[in-house]
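Tokens for chain A. Residues wanted.
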């Protein structure tokens, strides 16, 4: 569902990385659906979302519309009884996200956010390190995501909910809430861009913290004004985890043992090539696994985590107003 930038990358990654098939494309415009279907070699084109979700040859719907249409797209798929993977963020805000989660749970239909980082092997390594307590007591996360955009890109359009929050801050805030839990306090500063959206945002958040670890802090920076290192760190009292940029895609995982100014053991590095958006197929593979197993959510990105990310985005947005 959708014909934009991410659809092209997703279709390519899906074909290269899985045996799944893209059987139909849906758009608000019949012409755009046909153009995209022809360009991407997809068999059927639908000029409405209703027709797409009613297509009996469609097993799973991937909602890749603009942010404002995630809610309607997800609800259409759920009402049609089709498992649905919804591009990040799950919806515009936590209230909308809750509607998606409630509808999916009431219908018993599989629903997950296409927050692709959570499905990557690299993030699974992070998951294992955290579960195994390798970092000790975790006190902080810092993460940064800045990207240069063409001035005509939709991120500068207030009508399309542009700005650095929904497109970019989703990533660091998803990491911070996944690792440190729910946001309990937020302070943030936003710098306006002449287009009417925020150009950049810096935020410091307090979280509930990990079980038994007490409150923790995250520091997040996102910008549309230029490329930044896009690195992330998770700080523990036994070791610090380093994710060289881009932290949200495939790449190395570095564990640096704590040592202060004294001698410390060498960092442990798990090397992985950077494959960029080719990694988008992992989320599709996980959806297929879950649907085959009769699951309605994925343990890699449960809806509760998508909602926690949306609450964090809401808190940062409120703090910048
Ligand atoms: N996972 C990732 O790495 C990643 C990266 C980028 C974006 N995303 C997410 O994916 C979603 C879509 O982002 P996107 O970058 O693909 O947005 P986009 O290129 O602007 O496409 C969004 C929608 O706009 C419409 N559209 C496309 N071309 C158009 C045109 N020439 N004129 C008018 N409308 C047009 C299409 O819907 P219709 O055909 O129905 O009109 C399309 O589905 C966002 O929610 C974003 O957060 C994820």
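Reply:
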């Amino acid at each position: 569902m959708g014909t934009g930038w991410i659809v092209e990358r997703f279709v390519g990654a899906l074909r290269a990385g899985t045996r799944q098939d893209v059987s139909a494309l849906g758009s608000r415009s019949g012409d755009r659906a046909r153009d995209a279907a022809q360009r991407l070699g997809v068999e059927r084109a639908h000029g409405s979302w209703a027709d797409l979700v009613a297509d009996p040859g469609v097993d799973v719907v991937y909602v890749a519309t603009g942010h404002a249409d995630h809610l309607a797209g997800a609800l259409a798929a759920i009402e049609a009884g089709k498992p649905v993977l919804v591009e990040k963020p799950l919806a515009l805000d936590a209230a909308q996200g809750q509607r998606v989660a409630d509808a999916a749970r009431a219908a018993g239909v599989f629903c997950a956010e296409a927050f692709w980082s959570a499905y990557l092997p690299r993030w699974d390594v992070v998951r294992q390190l955290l579960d195994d307590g390798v970092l000790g007591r975790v006190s902080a996360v810092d993460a940064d995501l800045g990207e240069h955009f063409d001035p005509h890109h939709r991120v500068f359009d207030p009508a399309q909910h542009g700005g650095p929050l929904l497109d970019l801050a989703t990533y660091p805030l998803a990491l911070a809430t996944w690792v440190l839990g729910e946001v309990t306090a937020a302070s943030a500063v936003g710098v306006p861009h002449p287009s009417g959206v925020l150009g950049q945002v810096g935020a410091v958040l307090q979280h509930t913290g990990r079980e038994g670890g007490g409150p923790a802090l995250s520091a997040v920076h996102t910008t549309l004004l230029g490329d930044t290192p896009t690195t992330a760190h998770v700080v523990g009292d036994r070791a610090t985890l380093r994710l060289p940029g881009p932290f949200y895609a495939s790449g190395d995982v570095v564990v640096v043992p704590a040592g202060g100014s004294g001698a410390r053991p060498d960092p442990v590095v798990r090397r992985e090539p950077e494959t960029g958006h080719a990694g988008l197929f992992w989320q599709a593979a996980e959806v297929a696994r879950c649907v085959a197993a009769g699951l309605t959510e994925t343990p890699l990105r449960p809806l509760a985590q998508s909602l926690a990310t949306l609450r964090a985005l809401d808190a940062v947005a409120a703090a910048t107003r």
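The chain has two domains: 5-114, 118-273+300-320. The first strand starts at residue 24 and ends at 26.
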